[in-house]
């Protein structure tokens, strides 16, 4: 078990960062919130974090903000969500061009341990078969998802090669407070506009944002070394089951098929995170996580 540490969180204004910062502080750690827009960092300040201005594309600002930290956690993203903010191209650029600056700044500042957020969708190969950390990544050349997978894998390589002790956490599809995804699903269900992605038979591996944060906090304290871990629910589900459950909770008719497919089927295991971190999801499946 690791003692109290000074931890830098890059991307502290994002939903992952906003959930992670109070969790780390509650567990006795000193948190330095690295943000591009300090005027939007009121939540981090209110939690007691030390707010520093830094940009993932500016190694100098990162180096200045990281000095004195023992661990750096990179959760910076620009992924598109229901709110309309972000886009895949900007996120791919952040991963490909920003990660080298982050890694170089951590090295210069003497930050020996790093955690890099990644995505379990690197295993979105359209199959119903289970995947784990040893499975080959998916490939979707020419598609937005294919570019996103390539960028995520490039980010992982840069993070892994640039630090002797880097942990990669590949999270499932986030849902829960602040993510916007489940709020959007319920709003569309109540309006009678929720549609299954295609026939709804593809698998999705979800993770509640609070469970992703808990796994991250466990990793800080039970450091497993330089490896890659998948963080997701115990029970991946077909979109048909997820959206049918949402519609039932909303008191709406079952969703019809024919909606757009967001990404191919992916069904991943969390066994390694359970073994090495003692990770036990508070929400082991979508029925627990979506109850309201």
CATH class: Alpha Beta
Give a short account of the largest sheet: 7 strands, parallel
CATH homologous superfamily classification: NAD(P)-binding Rossmann-like Domain
Number of domains: 1
Percent in strands: 15-25%
How is the largest sheet built, in terms of strand order? Answer: 3-2-1-4-5-6-11
Tally of alpha and pi helices:
10
Under CATH, the topology can be stated as Rossmann fold
Mean of all residue-level pLDDT scores: 94
Describe the structure.
The protein has 10 helices and 13 strands. The chain is an alpha/beta fold. The chain has a single domain, classed as NAD(P)-binding Rossmann-like Domain (Rossmann fold), CATH 3.40.50. Helix 3 packs across helix 4 and helix 6 packs across helix 8. The model has no long low-confidence stretch (mean pLDDT 94).
Features:
292 residues; alpha/beta; Rossmann fold; seven-stranded parallel sheet; two-stranded parallel sheet; 10 helices; globular
Question: What does this entry show, briefly?
Answer:
The chain is an alpha/beta fold.
Task: Please render the helix and strand layout as text.
Elements lengths: L5 E5 L4 H12 L3 E6 L6 H6 L2 E4 L5 H8 L4 E4 L13 H22 L3 E7 L24 H19 L2 E7 L1 E3 L5 H10 L4 E3 L5 E2 L1 E3 H13 L6 E4 L5 E2 H12 L5 E4 L11 H7 L8 H4 L3
Parallel strand pairs: 1-2, 1-4, 2-3, 4-5, 5-6, 6-11, 7-10, 8-13
Antiparallel strand pairs: 9-12
